[in-house]
Design goal:
Blueprint: E1 9-15, E2 18-25, H1 27-35, H2 41-59, E3 65-74, E4 79-86, E5 90-97, E6 107-115, E7 119-127, H3 130-142, E8 146-153, E9 156-164, H4 171-184, H5 188-192, E10 196-202, E11 204-205, H6 211-219, H7 223-227, E12 232-236, E13 243-247
Parallel strand pairs: 5-11
Antiparallel strand pairs: 1-2, 1-10, 2-9, 3-4, 3-6, 4-5, 6-7, 8-9, 12-13
Helix pairs in contact: 1-2
The structure holds zinc ion.
């Protein structure tokens, strides 16, 4: 497939009263995969889905929110991938193993919305697979009439998120009209479908860690653990690998 789709972009369109957000990741995904040693193809595909979804969520976030973290947990393989995305297009990820709770199958999706004023808003849903978990998040947590789809072309992952504005009912019509894009991955298909482009911004690798956040990690450790450390401690960011020397006093 020869696509005419740009990489590393978020695009916003509107058709009628439905907003369409398109996220496209490749290089940023490869950078995140490299930093997390995700060498298996299946892991890379999982990261692509998680990254495209989180970038789209961050692009439609409320103004007072600073960033969004979406953590996908695959019960079958006991692997998790968490992606953090900012409204300005920066994103980063980490992967880990986890111990699944009993009697749960499929994919657990935990979304944390970080806001400067309201603190953190956390929600958890479960689905049979990634698409099922995202659908559950849209209906149960966002309580929106919206649709989500992921399309892949080689190392590139493209996510399409369409959301009805309040009081509208044209989601199905808009979704049907943009379907040729899923197959062709040609941006012109949006215009042909009657979508108006609202804007486009770049996605880049970038972390949210700081000396202050590293300091806070040490400060929130249990007393015994803090006492076992020296007067200074090293904190390594699990997203970007950056090291911080912080005081433990
Ligand atoms: Zn970092």
């Amino acid at each position: 497939m020869v696509t005419k789709m740009k990489n590393e972009v978020i695009q916003r369109y509107i058709q009628g009263d439905t907003l369409v957000i398109v996220s496209s990741v490749r290089d940023v995904c490869e950078e995140m995969a490299e930093k997390q040693n995700l060498t298996l193809n299946g892991d890379y595909i999982a990261l692509g889905s998680a990254a495209a979804f989180t970038a789209a969520l961050a692009a439609e976030q409320k103004e007072d929110e600073t960033y969004i973290t979406a953590c996908f947990k695959w019960v079958g393989t006991k692997k998790l991938i968490a992606v953090t995305a900012f409204g300005d297009g920066r994103m980063c990820a980490y992967s880990d193993k986890f111990e699944p709770p009993k009697d749960v199958e499929g994919v657990i999706l935990e979304v944390t919305r970080h806001s400067d004023v309201g603190g953190e808003y956390h929600s958890v849903v479960i689905g049979r697979n990634v698409q099922g978990a995202v659908n559950a998040y849209i209906s149960e947590s966002m309580q929106r009439n919206a649709k989500w789809k992921v399309v892949r072309d080689g190392r590139m992952t493209v996510g399409i998120f369409a959301e009805e504005l309040p009081g509208s009912s044209d989601l199905r019509k808009v979704w049907d009209s943009v379907k040729p894009f899923f197959r062709l991955l040609d941006e012109k298909e949006f215009e042909k479908a009657g979508c108006e482009k609202l804007g486009e911004s770049e996605l880049t690798f970038g972390c949210h860690c700081s000396k202050r956040s590293a300091q806070r990690i040490i400060e929130t450790l249990p007393k015994e653990e803090r006492e076992s450390l020296g007067p200074t401690a090293e904190v390594v960011c699990k997203f970007c690998g950056r090291k911080y020397e912080v005081e433990n006093g």
